[in-house]
């Protein structure tokens, strides 16, 4: 399983909670709306990677001391095992800067109640809403052989012993 770290800035606009996602323009999952983030670099932990990737993909700046682990999702692609990922989800408590589009991704804010589900991976509904509701869970997603639809998924509360 390749370790991946994602970072989900949250804000409130006119009393409506919003999350920052990004339209992926290149690489794995191009054309989909995803969490900002990516692979860990050698020597990096997941929180460090989440902060670095947030900066590279959106321009927002935060630090590992300012992010909280909000969940873990394992994406299993049995038909393409090399795509399988162990994903740590982080929510930053604070950040600086203004988000902007990069060559890789176009960030955009979405109200929690109006996530762009049609543009997202089909499994996102199984874990993203719960994470946004404050539930810290370890979710396992098994993709079907089309590498797109969901064959199975389950979640357990995140414990200190869950991988991150
Ligand atoms: N089943 C799935 N459900 C989901 O919601 N997001 C998924 C997913 N499978 C992959 N992703 C997302 C998470 C992350 O945003 C992205 C994979 O990480 P990366 O952006 O790192 O990939 P790339 O190879 O394009 O980029 P680099 O890490 O910069 O090399 O795909």
UniProtKB/TrEMBL annotation:
Keywords: Hydrolase, Magnesium, Metal-binding. GO terms for cellular component: cytoplasm. The keyword Magnesium applies. It comes from Tersicoccus phoenicis. PANTHER family: 7,8-DIHYDRO-8-OXOGUANINE TRIPHOSPHATASE, OXIDIZED PURINE NUCLEOSIDE TRIPHOSPHATE HYDROLASE. Residues 1-136 form the Nudix hydrolase domain. Its EC number is 3.6.1.56. It comes from the Bacteria. This is Oxidized purine nucleoside triphosphate hydrolase. One of its GO terms (molecular function) is 8-oxo-7,8-dihydroguanosine triphosphate pyrophosphatase activity. The keyword Metal-binding applies. It catalyses: O(6)-methyl-dGTP + H2O = O(6)-methyl-dGMP + diphosphate + H(+); N(6)-methyl-dATP + H2O = N(6)-methyl-dAMP + diphosphate + H(+); 8-oxo-dGTP + H2O = 8-oxo-dGMP + diphosphate + H(+); 2-oxo-dATP + H2O = 2-oxo-dAMP + diphosphate + H(+). GO terms for biological process: DNA protection. Belongs to the Nudix hydrolase family. Monomer. Oxidized purine nucleoside triphosphate hydrolase which is a prominent sanitizer of the oxidized nucleotide pool. Catalyzes the hydrolysis of 2-oxo-dATP (2-hydroxy-dATP) into 2-oxo-dAMP. Also has a significant hydrolase activity toward 2-oxo-ATP, 8-oxo-dGTP and 8-oxo-dATP. Through the hydrolysis of oxidized purine nucleoside triphosphates, prevents their incorporation into DNA and the subsequent transversions A:T to C:G and G:C to T:A. Also catalyzes the hydrolysis of methylated purine nucleoside triphosphate preventing their integration into DNA. Its cofactor is Mg(2+). InterPro entries: 8ODP (IPR003563), NUDIX_hydrolase-like_dom_sf (IPR015797), NUDIX_hydrolase_CS (IPR020084), NUDIX_hydrolase_dom (IPR000086). Pfam families: NUDIX.
């Amino acid at each position: 399983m390749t370790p991946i770290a994602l970072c989900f800035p949250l804000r409130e606009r006119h009393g409506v909670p919003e999350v920052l996602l990004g339209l992926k323009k290149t690489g794995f999952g191009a054309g989909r709306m995803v969490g900002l983030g990516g692979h860990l670099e050698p020597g990096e932990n997941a929180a460090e990677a989440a902060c670095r990737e947030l900066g590279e993909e959106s321009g927002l700046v935060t630090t590992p001391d300012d992010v909280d682990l909000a969940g873990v999702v394992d994406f299993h692609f049995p038909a393409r095992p090399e795509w399988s990922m162990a994903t740590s989800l982080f929510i930053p408590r604070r950040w600086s800067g203004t988000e902007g589009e990069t060559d890789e991704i176009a960030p955009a804010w979405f109200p929690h109640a109006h996530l762009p589900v049609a543009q997202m991976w089909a499994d996102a509904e199984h874990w993203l809403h719960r994470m946004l509701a404050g539930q810290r869970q370890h979710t396992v997603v098994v993709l079907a052989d089309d590498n797109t639809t969901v064959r199975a998924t389950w979640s357990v509360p995140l414990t200190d012993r869950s991988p991150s």
